[in-house]
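ABC transporter domain-containing protein
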Amino acid sequence: MSKTQGNFRLRVVEGEFTDSQIVVMLGENGTGKTTFIRMLAGLLKPDTVEGSEAEIPEFNVSYKPQKISPKFQFSVRQLLHSKIRDSYMHPQFVSDVMKPLLIEQLMDQEVVNLSGGELQRVALCLCLGKYVESPASIAEQSCEM
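Predicted structure tokens:
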């Protein structure tokens, strides 16, 4: 599939993702990471999909943008409770995600008052908690990061 935006052209060759796999994409600025993720999430239509029978399967995509603008006027605890209640209350998620990210020490702070690094950690926690079918599966998934 491909997408052109101005002078930028992204061309994605065929590949595979497996169920319940966590994929981390790293790369230089302007290489098309966000464009690719937005196409996978169905938020952006590709210009072309190679092969007339090819189609993009539906994915549950959760991604953490590089720049975050905090708009939530309440505490981190209230944010997690409203967005990922089942995950953030599960003991396995707490031990495998929240403790390593040092989220517990931020729980009572207002989201709008967090530093840039703290915001990134909370956003990563939200990202990991959003599409976890079973919080107990985090242990298996975290090994693939």
